[in-house]
Amino acid sequence: MKNQYVNRMQEGDRINDYFVAARKDLRSKQDGGKFLGMVLKDKTGDIGGVMWNNATDTAKLFEVGDVVSVRGTVGTYQGRLQVRIDQVLPLCENDYSLSDLVNKPDNLKETAEAFEALLLSLGNPFCKALCAAFLQDQDFKESFMQAMAGKKWHHEYVGGLLQHCHEMARIAETVCELYPELDRDVLMTAIFLHDAGKVHEMTHGLAAEYTTEGKLLGHLQIGCDMVQRKMDQIPDFPEKLRMELLHCILSHHGELINGSPVTPRTIEAIVLHHIDNLDAQTAAFSRIIRETREKGQEWSDYLPLIDRVIWTK
Amino acid sequence: MKNQYVNRMQEGDRINDYFVAARKDLRSKQDGGKFLGMVLKDKTGDIGGVMWNNATDTAKLFEVGDVVSVRGTVGTYQGRLQVRIDQVLPLCENDYSLSDLVNKPDNLKETAEAFEALLLSLGNPFCKALCAAFLQDQDFKESFMQAMAGKKWHHEYVGGLLQHCHEMARIAETVCELYPELDRDVLMTAIFLHDAGKVHEMTHGLAAEYTTEGKLLGHLQIGCDMVQRKMDQIPDFPEKLRMELLHCILSHHGELINGSPVTPRTIEAIVLHHIDNLDAQTAAFSRIIRETREKGQEWSDYLPLIDRVIWTK
Amino acid sequence: MKNQYVNRMQEGDRINDYFVAARKDLRSKQDGGKFLGMVLKDKTGDIGGVMWNNATDTAKLFEVGDVVSVRGTVGTYQGRLQVRIDQVLPLCENDYSLSDLVNKPDNLKETAEAFEALLLSLGNPFCKALCAAFLQDQDFKESFMQAMAGKKWHHEYVGGLLQHCHEMARIAETVCELYPELDRDVLMTAIFLHDAGKVHEMTHGLAAEYTTEGKLLGHLQIGCDMVQRKMDQIPDFPEKLRMELLHCILSHHGELINGSPVTPRTIEAIVLHHIDNLDAQTAAFSRIIRETREKGQEWSDYLPLIDRVIWTK
Amino acid sequence: MKNQYVNRMQEGDRINDYFVAARKDLRSKQDGGKFLGMVLKDKTGDIGGVMWNNATDTAKLFEVGDVVSVRGTVGTYQGRLQVRIDQVLPLCENDYSLSDLVNKPDNLKETAEAFEALLLSLGNPFCKALCAAFLQDQDFKESFMQAMAGKKWHHEYVGGLLQHCHEMARIAETVCELYPELDRDVLMTAIFLHDAGKVHEMTHGLAAEYTTEGKLLGHLQIGCDMVQRKMDQIPDFPEKLRMELLHCILSHHGELINGSPVTPRTIEAIVLHHIDNLDAQTAAFSRIIRETREKGQEWSDYLPLIDRVIWTK
Amino acid sequence: MKNQYVNRMQEGDRINDYFVAARKDLRSKQDGGKFLGMVLKDKTGDIGGVMWNNATDTAKLFEVGDVVSVRGTVGTYQGRLQVRIDQVLPLCENDYSLSDLVNKPDNLKETAEAFEALLLSLGNPFCKALCAAFLQDQDFKESFMQAMAGKKWHHEYVGGLLQHCHEMARIAETVCELYPELDRDVLMTAIFLHDAGKVHEMTHGLAAEYTTEGKLLGHLQIGCDMVQRKMDQIPDFPEKLRMELLHCILSHHGELINGSPVTPRTIEAIVLHHIDNLDAQTAAFSRIIRETREKGQEWSDYLPLIDRVIWTK
Amino acid sequence: MKNQYVNRMQEGDRINDYFVAARKDLRSKQDGGKFLGMVLKDKTGDIGGVMWNNATDTAKLFEVGDVVSVRGTVGTYQGRLQVRIDQVLPLCENDYSLSDLVNKPDNLKETAEAFEALLLSLGNPFCKALCAAFLQDQDFKESFMQAMAGKKWHHEYVGGLLQHCHEMARIAETVCELYPELDRDVLMTAIFLHDAGKVHEMTHGLAAEYTTEGKLLGHLQIGCDMVQRKMDQIPDFPEKLRMELLHCILSHHGELINGSPVTPRTIEAIVLHHIDNLDAQTAAFSRIIRETREKGQEWSDYLPLIDRVIWTK
Q: Is the Cβ pair B246, D216 closer than 8 Å?
């Protein structure tokens, strides 16, 4: 069991605990030798680390994403905390508890079952077939179950993407009751697939990072390509439904400036966009409120992303 | 019963039917006499009118907001359709059908009862008392029941504001189930009162126009003043709740650029803003889809407000 | 041969000449009958038309995009010129001269040959294979040869897209000489394919209009899908090259606000974007200068798109 | 008398002097104990401080806003100067000189008298009565006399708000002479009250901080409420004047993006906005010029708020 | 004396009065002949005119900027009023009253004398010499006295620029009393010369239009060149003063987006910018209030430039 | 020969090598004495330095821009590396190699000759005379040859401005072949002179800094003044060409927000702007790719100026 967490570290602390190795760089010293730069991560945050001796050999012992046992001391470098590392040892899966390293909601399995049941009960046979094609694709399904919706702002944990989609579907049920013009099958399918591209845009294991494909193409384009390939395999997939679903994926960021190449032009697309936003912001405020209360503050720290402080009462 | 509607008029039509007199201006002719400028309105739109003879006497026969019988001919002036008016006669309430002149949903009474019941069942005694104070204020209640949420974009009909609030409450129920951090009583009270100022920002009878107070102060400030006065009359109204509710009203437009002097800084405020947006845009898309289909088009006309066309399929 | 052109029409003119029927709408008159709304087009512009009698029968005689002989009179409606149509008759290909109806550069064939030769001489075998796959696809090639780069601003004529790409390639040659870091094969392939999606985003015959697919997905996404499908058919197409080319297509508008979902992150992508812009704006200024001089003006009319007037000296 | 000022501190200095305790946080150490975080302030700036031992007892000795004697050493923490505190002792009013801790103009009393005389000589009886009501409200008057107009940019000292208002009135006199359309009484009253809400938006003693009410409602809304309550107590206060004055307060930031929920729509409101801006920016430039010259520089440091450097010659 | 003014014209009016010929275009008719397009102007506005017969001969009778007697009838063309002209005759200076054609304040001579006295009393000998150099330049002085500050928004009449500068100087006196850091001589000189380039940016006779130089270079650059040339002729003109004054001219629009290539970086420059703005907006609001009251309206028409309506009470 | 470069320094390094003294400030210590603040620079970057003892005497030994030998130790201050200086000694030109201190392309002389030949071969005699006037001005020519186009982003080295202009001319040749409307002589002259003002906007020796004139007037205005003075000396210089060239200089930043007081309104101006942008961004991407590969990274560090990372493959 882990005792030392990143968000509690202070200058001068002696460290002897395990972390995810989220980055590993061998760089040159002025004297010609090498030193090892690392990023250490657990469920509370991350911290840089540097190892001056024995760097080349140590670097061979582990890969990025591995869990390692680290010994060292917390100092500061250029104004930020940093671990001066003495030793790094790789661990096996039995040596650590995953729940110390990443957050994961308890009810993930129930959520997955409920969401899957909803999708497989859709009335439109092509929507249902498309959802089924993804759910039967074991590689996709496994990745989707592990994916986070984002690195930091909302649903930023293992299973976060699934939970986000399920919450969106819950809200969508109510909106469909209010507005008969909405095609519920299209909307639910679009909710399921709107962020499907995130599965390849980021790595989602112990060390979440944007992939090269993610940085060059983005999850909208990646997602459209994934959905298009599945639709190609369903005989007689209607052209109208094809355009509707791809349009929902492409436009779900709502505005060009937010990265959607087209703005929402169907009622399902506009509803998808607003539900996505509503659920994301509510989740982010919830997280900030919890974190702020834990620190014993009434007002959150300043949040640059939204340029304000939040009141937690 | 009315036969001639504004949205069907074409150059050359002879007009003989009734309309709301939405504007009445006596202006000078070059020869020193007067002519009468009017705006005629029914539930399908409005059109300008001009009467060259007998203007002064005719202008005495009616007030803005009255229903009048008009005879004349449709022409064009400076590129827009305009009725050359021959005669204007005032009508009594029995002479016309209100439903020809303004839109009004059928189930308004049921909606009102359901929404009122919800508000009076709130657990927080101060929230409940505040809602009750407004519901027992007959002037307010009557105005609120007639109010539209906007002049053109969404819920732009008699009872529109009530219906909008009720839909928001429905969506809020679901969001409250998902996020235990939310204070349901605060959120429901804020939904009820977020646009309360619109009751005085606009006239809401047959001719909806912004009032001078509305143009100078806006419905956020007017609403805060109304709510503050009611809170002043409730003994021991908690300061914290006072600030929370006023903050929700002030920040519900979400961003400074949209006219909120402060941005949402509580979770109830951010949820209020996003539910408001979600319901308003969905309602607007619904309306545009219905209107576009009625015109037999697959794509809507260009919508300058949102800079796009909408697909109605 | 055609004598009457749209840009010379004045109120009161009698019309008896041929045009492209760019739009055809049967709508209801107030008396229950139908009238026919049209848009008439030739190489100098377009004008609305309306036919009050015999509308239903006349509408059966032709389709949108056909060339028709029209008789009527020029009037105004709501402040704009409009043809009151008396008669519409369909024409055969022999009855009209295509060059009266659309603009087309003289040297299109030579341009096509030169550009094709350049592409087929690329050194990178996968770039060459990809270009060849498109050039051997007769449907694509024919459409590409006819396509305009835009409806109004630049290269807005038959063959405009081809000419634009060829000019870009000419400029790219010089830039490649200056910057050895540039991969010429990638850049030339990206120039060829950057607007490939426009082939399906618009119709490109006699009546250019955005398609439903174009309005919902946009030419970036359509183009990526076209290129992806061709790459799927080339064995061992390198993943790196796949990402580079798709990235160039997606990012060539340069900024999110201009509709690219990602910004240019490779040197070929940034060069593609700037060459595209340079050639497009130069072509637009050239066109405006020619048109302004033809009108005998020293300064152009006000150009809302770029918020300025242009000096033609 | 004080010898050590915040803006002269350097790493390694031994500190033994008095400061305002502008912040006081008891936080947990990793070993379970507590440490004390502080912010120390004098008229030249502020600096963080931390006390590792005896924290809980020390924290009981003083409140935020008290003046304390501090002993310690200047070090750096995460790249910024910080005092490692050994001892904190509370002081009595006799033990320190207020003028070492906050800036305060010499002629504050004269300014107050002149401004009060101007307000009480207004011709419009309702304007005069409203000003009198505020001036006779001792709580308000005392707060108003102490208030600063802002925390950092302009008039950022005790009495700054009063001085700012008086300067605005001086400029307004001249503008009223130039433009007879201006209602001088309305303008002068609006100048007095435009920032009245700042009295509650911030604490204005030795430690200026935004209050919770300030962060949730802002000084525009707080000020409108204060003014409305006073107007309610003046019999027959004219509705027109009520709307004019509240409009001036609400719109005085000039644009929505600057936090005004309505833009200036009367001539007094537009003049108020521009005079406010003119005086604020001139005062800020004056301050920067003085501070820069004191540092012996010809050009100021980079000013992020206005994205430029200033020349002091 | 003139009886028919542009702002009172209505469809059908017979016209027989004099106007400024503000534009004169000979254009081709479809039949090969020519017609004459004109713009007619008086102090109340302008209107287009068209003459179908005898166009070539008539066009020889007058130049743009001449005063002409016009006979014709008011009709509409493409939705706007237009005079169908039957006859145009040139007039001599004795045949018309200038005050019917352009607005001009009564006290222009007094204003000029007061402003000149102020400039010639400046203490700094180089400021005084520079002002004198401009005032002794008869061409400049005459143009400056006639110039308007703008075409439409503020001080849009003969002598408007002078009046605007004098008002700014009045306000500047007060600001200089408040802020001893301000160099009054520099500020007054900068006020005099800040818009000097407008003398060449526009024609300022009876027909105000932007010149080609004005459209290509703008009044900031033209003004700097004029001032630089005068400074070159004053021996030993100090480099510091040269830079200060040119900086004031270049930066007086305040922000890049408003057309200043540099932002204000001295206190005189920031004060110049804000006084300019204050006086311009107050003048514009004054004008709109007067015009709106004349039309008998309480609220102005919608003002696109500032996106609002104005209350005139 | 130099061994220690700024971009390789690490905390703890002993420094004994030569650098450009890019800044020199004598400031007061708390004890009343003086210390010396410096910035040390070589071709790889710059670093702050501080000398606590013997500061006043040392400061007399050298000027900003001199090359000095420095002994000291690398530490950190407020989170950034800083040299604690023990000794500073001035060097003579023979003591150091210029190529260690600033970057300079090898082929600068050839580039200069080629560019000069191009300019002197222009057909338009006034363009040629203007270019010749600058090339025969030895002060200008020497400065121009040394100038960098910018401090950091592109062509940020000795001779960078010349190289940038020559590259632009190469691209312009191709564009002129494509567009016959372009006046090649005007375009080439404009390319030569568009950034001429940079010669005085910055110092261009060993320590590049913005001058006071540069910060107050900017290189557009400075350049226009330089070009105007040269044109004044060429008899009969055509007014049309004068306006065209000054317009090109003033508008070459393309948009007001980028600091051009007018937007491009001639075809040469729009082409100049786009070629400038194309060459600048391509050069910047080239530099970033080289620097990133040198660090052994596939993706560049985050680039705040363009808000992205760049892929170097």
A: yes
